[in-house]
Every structure is written in structure tokens, then in C-alpha cells.
Amino acid sequence: MFDQLSSLNTSRTNWRVKVRVTRMWPSGSKASNGNDGIKGYNLILLDDDNCHVHAYVYADNWKKLSGPIVEGGLYILSNFFTREALGSLKLVSSKIIINVSLATSVELIPEDDFMILFHKFEFVDLSELFSLANVIRAVEDFEKLSIIGTMFGDREIVKFRLTDGRHTHQVTVWGKLAVSTNSVFTEATEKPVIAILSSTKLKIFKNSVQISTLPSSRVYMNLDTDIVAAMRQRLYSDGYVAPERSLSTHTYSSTMATPIKTLSLKELSEKTSTEMLDVVEETSA
């Protein structure tokens, strides 16, 4: 018998849930001596009720888990603490965060019954800015991966546009995220290519919409999910026609560009600088 993620509260610790790890990434800290600069690990967990929750494992506890946790894996978690999700930078809408402690049992389920989805996204329109957002749009004018010189050395970069058929947003992606974005776009064959940008920070700056990536951000292209099919069908219904220029052969020069510092969640709440992914909203011609 399993508890549903939607039923979690802070009243007890003898919870038992069956979940899929849909995303995971480390949190760094300069003070994390002996852990290679890693303070802990973040997990996004999803259950068969399509509810997702953010979980956190401190680095010392991570090392003592009975086995490795992998993205996409199915697990049973038993006996864990829960706390309220505070602050403006919540990764999912759930009001509870799971804390995996030394008392927590993490059991891998080797045979996947596929009753739990591999992804879940909560979308908002770019006009409805909130703490962290997922954005879905069609990709246009993708300029393949290139490397440009910056004052801190060479950096990978890709550029493309996102559109809902009415408005277009210019996107620039830097660093490792640019490499993975280029890879998933290259593998996407069905047109128009539909992109999902997950866990991004949205804000208004100088009368334009900007999106900044965090360590938790991902870029997906043509993900095999109903929301992508629905977005493509909506574009077709609205009479959208993808431009012929779907892939640019433009080569970037080595002109010096100013890189943008990567921000942790804590730093982002204290600073205004942005990292990797800047989106400027434009009105479609």
C-alpha cells in the first residue's frame, strides 16, 4: 500500500510512496568539504496520480544510500521527513518537500509497469510571470552549435526562436545546456519541432520578457508526450506554417562576448544577473 504524493503533510514520517525520478541534479556549495563541492542532490518525483514533488538528499546521506538513483528510475521511498516548501523559487507547485535522511529506505523497482509517466510539466503563458516556469513553443531558425570567444575563454552557444504562431521570442543558450540543446534538436525529425523549456526563471527587463536558466533547467525537443502533440495540433489548427529556414548554417565570429554567471537558487534570490538563456519577446511580423 502506497501513499499518494498529494496526501503528504508534515504530521508524520512513516510515509511510503512509489515514484519515478523525472529529473535530478546536484546543488553546489563552496563549504561542502569532502563532497567535491556538492551540498546535496535534488530530485523531482512523480507518482501514478500525476502529482510531482521536489525531494532533497544531503551529500553525506546520498553516499550512504543502498544503491544509485538514476533519472527515469522507479523507486519505493519509505520513512522520510517532509517540510513546507517556502520561498518564491519553488520547482513544482507542491507545497511539500521531501527530505531523504539516513532513516529513509530507497528501493529500486527493477520491473517497470509504466503506470507512472516519465515527465510532467506545468505551463504558463509568458505574460503570466511567476516564480519558476515551464514554456512550450515551436522552434524556428535554429542556429547550430558554435563556439565563441569570451573574456573567460571559449563558450558553446546555440540560438533559435520560440513561437506560438503569433509572437516570437529570441533564445540564446550557453555552455553545457547549449550542447545538450543542439543534440536533442539534431535528433528531432518531426516538424515543426516543439520545445519545452523547464524550470526557468521569468522576468520583465526593459519592457521585454527574459528567461534565465537555473541548475534545474532543461530543454526538451519533440518530447513524446500528449502536450507536445496538442501544441503541434493547435499550431496546425491556427494555420501555422513553419518557415523553410529551419536550420541556419550561420557561423559565429570569435568576437568577445560577455558571459553571464551561473546562479544558484539562493544567489538568484539575492542578485539580478541572469545566466545562459535570455529570451527577448518580439511581436511576429
Structure report:
With 285 residues, this protein is mainly beta. The protein has two domains: 5-108, OB fold (Dihydrolipoamide Acetyltransferase, E2P); 133-283, Beta Barrel (OB fold (Dihydrolipoamide Acetyltransferase, E2P)). Helices cover 13% and strands 41% of the residues. The longest helix has 13 residues, at 175-187. It is globular, with a radius of gyration of 20 Å.
Annotated CATH topology of the largest domain? OB fold (Dihydrolipoamide Acetyltransferase, E2P)
Q: Look at the helices and sheets and give the structural class.
A: mainly beta
Apparent shape: globular
Q: Averaging pLDDT over every residue, what do you get?
A: 78
- Share of helical residues: 10-25%
> Using only CA atoms, what is the Rg?
20 Å
Protein name: Replication protein A 70 kDa DNA-binding subunit B/D first OB fold domain-containing protein
Pfam families: DUF223 (PF02721)
Domain Replication protein A 70 kDa DNA-binding subunit B/D first OB fold: 2-107
Organism: Daucus carota subsp. sativus
In a nutshell, what does this entry contain?
The chain has 285 residues and is mainly β.
Question: Key terms for this structure?
Answer:
single chain; 285 residues; OB fold (Dihydrolipoamide Acetyltransferase, E2P); seven-stranded mixed β-sheet; globular; Replication protein A 70 kDa DNA-binding subunit B/D first OB fold domain-containing protein; NA-bd_OB-fold; RFA1B/D_OB_1st
What's the arrangement of secondary structure elements?
Elements: E1 16-28, E2 38-46, E3 52-58, H1 59-63, E4 74-78, E5 81-84, E6 96-100, E7 105-108, E8 133-150, E9 153-163, E10 167-174, H2 175-187, E11 194-205, E12 208-221, H3 226-237, E13 247-248, H4 265-270, E14 278-283
Parallel strand pairs: 3-6, 8-13
Antiparallel strand pairs: 1-2, 1-4, 2-3, 4-7, 5-6, 8-9, 8-11, 9-10, 10-14, 11-12
